[in-house]
Amino acid sequence: QVELVESGGASVQAEGSLRLSCVVSGFFARTNCVAWFRQVPVKEREGIAASYTSGTTPSADSVKGRFTISQESAKNTVFLQMNNLKPEHTGMYYCAADKAICPLRGKHSYDYWGQGTQVTVSS
Question: Mean pLDDT throughout 88-108?
Answer without folding.
Answer: 95
